[in-house]
Amino acid sequence: MSTLDTELELEFTEEGEQSRQHRLRWVILGVLALAQLMVVLDATIVNIALPDAQTSLGFDNADRQWIVTAYALAFGSLLLLGGRLSDLVGRKTTLIVGLVGFAAMSAVGGAAANFGMLVFARAGQGLFGALLAPAALALLTTTFTDARERARAFGIFGAIAGGGGALGLLLGGMLTEWATWRWCLYVNLVIAVVALAGALLFLRNQRSEHRPRLDIPGTLTVSAALFSIVYGFSHAETNGWADAATSVWLAAGVVLLAVFVWLQARTTHALLPLRIVVDRTRGGSYLVVFIAGIGMFGIFLFLTYYLQQNLGFTPIRTGLAFLPMIGVVIVASTLATALLLPRFGPRWMTALGMFVAAGGLVLLTQLSDASTYAADILPGLMIIGLGLGLSMAPSMQGAISGVSGDDAGVASATVNTMQQVGGSVGTALLSTIASSAATAWATDHASSGLSATQLSSLAAVHSYTTAFWWAAGIFAVGGVVAGLVIRSGKLPETPEDTVALAH
Fold first, then answer.
1. Does residue 9 sit in the same domain as residue 105?
2. By CB count within 10 A, which of 411, 436, 446, 460 is most buried?
3. What is the residue range of 358's domain?
4. DSSP letter string over 304-360?
């Protein structure tokens, strides 16, 4: 067979693969959504299981945070490396390795015989999640090339990012109450098997025609920087902002981040090419995702406490209480991105969504010890869901718009990094603010004649509403950032090489 015949055969095969990929694009969306859901779920699902896990394995309250922090540290610090590996090795391959590894670590965690084994498994989940998440988002970008269809796909994907945490609370409550805390980890095996089967059957093999060298100095620097920042905020949550170690870790993170930027401007094979983040639409979208990550923890964390400790909700009922918000997020994100984003672009839509979410949080600041779910919580949740639906999917799509095929993976990883670091910042910042507010309120009302139980309950409610005010302000800042930074107009078309690299 001649060289020309071989080339024609390869071209014909490739066209057939592209046609098949196009026909199966909505099935592929389901596979990628499952993979993303598994990663998002594990940021919250284990929280509900912690008390039972602590009783079962016998570790101290001081050690409890490491079950959450180990995941966040590994996931947050390795995401950019995972994104670049998906560009270099191939996105289907990276996704499959991530799925298999995540499932294996979940099995280890579910079978944990002691505290150390569970922490190891959670760190392993974070590591493989850092491979999984950017590969899924990059594959979504390369699978949907039509602007309107891509908007709908990102609407669904953004809904998972916005509502997956609440769904994790529900699923965690159900599994803990009906089975055992170990199933909060074992459930990932079920999700991973389905997603893995779909990936093997429906995703195209990826062959990168040129593989630039991995930026080792940049990788080490940014991984250390993100580790320092996430650990610093986690340390602040438990030891306070005045603790010397908190300042040292955060300062080290900032310095390392500056060194990373300096390195990226001077290397020809940068881990995160600065052209990705200096674009106004992408840079503004990354900031919005980061700010939303901070504020969202004000919704899940403190409202969960309020529902269970003040209203007496069970873990399952607490999870169910968030379902209306998830429904609104899904509807708003899919409809808005399909109808509005292709026509108007992300700027004002994202800004409006952030302001709407801020308004919903303002409603939650009015909670008292006499509030009810239907009258005082549900309206705020619905409005927050609308705001998240309007802002999350457009900002996620804006964050990876117009990038070349060589950069799609690392651009996707940057989205996940901003959300993860934002969540870590939000948890520490809002927890510290709430704790200080509770202490101050209890001190001010110590001589009011209230019983110790009443004083504790009212101080807790005050701390939650204070956190909601801060979260509302954070979302409002996100709205201002979106309006000022993101460029007006429609998103740029996907470059042809981005699509070509999907095979």
1. yes
2. 411
3. 3-214+271-500
4. HHIIIIIS---HHHHHHHHHHHHHHHHHHHHHHHHHTHHHH-SHHHHHHHHHHHHHH
